[in-house]
Amino acid sequence: MTPTLQTLFFLGKGGTGKSTSAVLTALDLAARGKSVVLASFDDAHNLSDIFKQNLNHKPVRVRPDLEVLQVDRGREIKAYLSKTSQKVKQSYAYLTAFNLGNYFDVLKYSPGMEAHALVSAFSELKDRCAGKDVLIVDMPPTALSMHFFNLPALSLLWVQQLEKLREEINKRKKIVSRIKFAGKQIQRDKVLARIREIKTGHTVLQAFFRKQALCVAVHNGDALSSAETIRIVDELGGLGMALTGAVYSRRSPDQPEETRWNDARLDRLPSWVLPYSPVPLVGIQTLDRYAQTHGIALSGLIPQDPS
Amino acid sequence: MSLVWLDRIRKELISLWDTADQVARGKAVERVEDELEELEYIFALLSQGAFVGMPSPPVQISLDLLPAMETDLILLMERVETANEPLSRLFSVFDIS
Questions:
Q1: Chain B closest CA to A29's CA: distance in Å?
Q2: pLDDT at position B95, please?
Q3: Which residues of chain A does B66 touch, with a Cβ-Cβ cutoff of 8 Å?
Q4: Which residues of B sit within 8 Å Cβ distance of A?
């Protein structure tokens, strides 16, 4: 039987240690025999620095059970626009009234394209990971991450209204056809069919985010990253999602060993602490040594399979 | 001879009936067709409004629908051209001269 893919998202303020936490989790899971794919959606390319090699969209095997890749948003946007532009060229006889080519050139800067590129890359990646045990996503800073999780819900709001309107149009087309053309069959509405495809895709993704996504917030215990973590909990709550764990990454030896949130949602959350490291956590061996020395087992972020 | 006349009158009557039927059907759906065109325009405006400077849905929805919306876009562009004469269009819909 194909194992169910578990998906773990690392969220948090920029620079808190999302990538380090994601890599430590991936290494721990791989060491326990899980087949893991670790993908960075963050343009900061931290994974390339940690693994000391230039990563791109093609997965690189860094351990027998661990593949790593870097999603390139610019490349995703370009590929999506080029595919749509090709479809338009194939289906339009009319292209002279306005210059769609220029329109597509400008669209890559359109607000929302980045979140869409990530959603599209994620959906593709999830399909590609069928047969693997765990997909770990190192997310970009909070604002873009929230746009990413919000995209299916926002799109569904629009798509549902467009679907209703299109159904009204088709109802009237049928009336006209019945009276004028003795009920001659009207052509299948390609637009309505496409709207329903989009709706299904977003409904599936929204359900996945709500029921299956495991979200972990990484913070440093300081005022700013803590405030952002609380904001992440609020934002996710608005989308019907919740954090499943928190990682406290200590940036200096003077910081307390534990944090108290005074927020019930965070205080009862399973938490892990990454102790302060005087050496930069770069390279697999350094990370393995660090995890071993401090007895860190971030594989615990994945709930245990009851079977 | 009278049979030929009768047949001609019958044919004339049938043709008259067909014409009247077509006119009645045309009149009956004129308003529905106007309403249909208006709805199609609203749909095009909602889904592809970015082309004419209107707020639009998340850009990927517009783009995903774009390949199937050639006729809607033509309608949208036509409407933009006549947008400065909304009253004349309304008068023509209601046959006011």
A1: 36
A2: 63
A3: 84, 87-88
A4: 25-26, 28-29, 32-33, 35-36, 39-40, 42-43, 46-47, 51, 57-61, 63-70, 72-74, 77
A94:B70 CB<8 A: yes
Distances (CA, A) of B7 to A10, A230, B1, B21: 87, 90, 10, 21
Smallest CA–CA distance from A159 into chain B, residue: B61
B46/A161 CB distance under 8 A: yes
Amino acid symbol at A192: L
Q: What is the pLDDT of residue A307?
A: 46
| d(CA A161, nearest CA chain B) in Å | 10
Q: Supply angle C-alpha A162, A79, A152, rounded to 5.
A: 35
Asked if residue B58 lies in contact with residue A112, where contact means CB atoms within 8 angstroms, the answer is yes
Distance from CA of B90 to the nearest CA of A (A): 20
CA distance A195 to chain B (A): 7
The values of phi and psi at residue A89, to 5°, are: -60, -35
Contact A66, A27 (CB under 8 A): yes
Number of helical H runs and strand E runs in chain A? 10, 8
Please give the C-alpha separations between residue A248 and each of A39, A97, A288, B45, in angstroms, as whole numbers: 21, 57, 18, 49
Closest by CA position to A17, among listed A294, A283, A274, A270? A274
Point out the least confidently predicted range of A26-35, A114-123, A189-198, B75-84: B75-84
Quote the pLDDT of residue A96.
45
Amino acid identity for residue A265 in this structure: R
Q: How far apart are the first and last CA of chain A?
A: 14
**Other C-beta atoms lying within 10 Å of the C-beta of residue A293:** 10
pTM, two decimals, is 0.81
When the pLDDT of each residue in chain A is averaged and rounded to a whole number, the result is 88
Among residues of chain A, what percentage have pLDDT more than 70? 93
Gap between the Cα atoms of A53 and B36, Å rounded: 59
Q: Is there a contact between A21 and A138 (Cβ–Cβ < 8 Å)?
A: no
E-strand spans in chain A? 6-12, 36-40, 60-63, 66-70, 134-138, 213-219, 243-249, 271-274
Indicate the residue type of A123: S
Distance, in Å, from the CA atom of B54 to the CA atom of B71, rounded to the nearest integer, reads 19
A166 burial class (0-12, 13-18, 19+ CB within 10 angstroms)?
buried
Structure tokens at A171: 């109802």
Contact A165 B51 (CB under 8 A): no
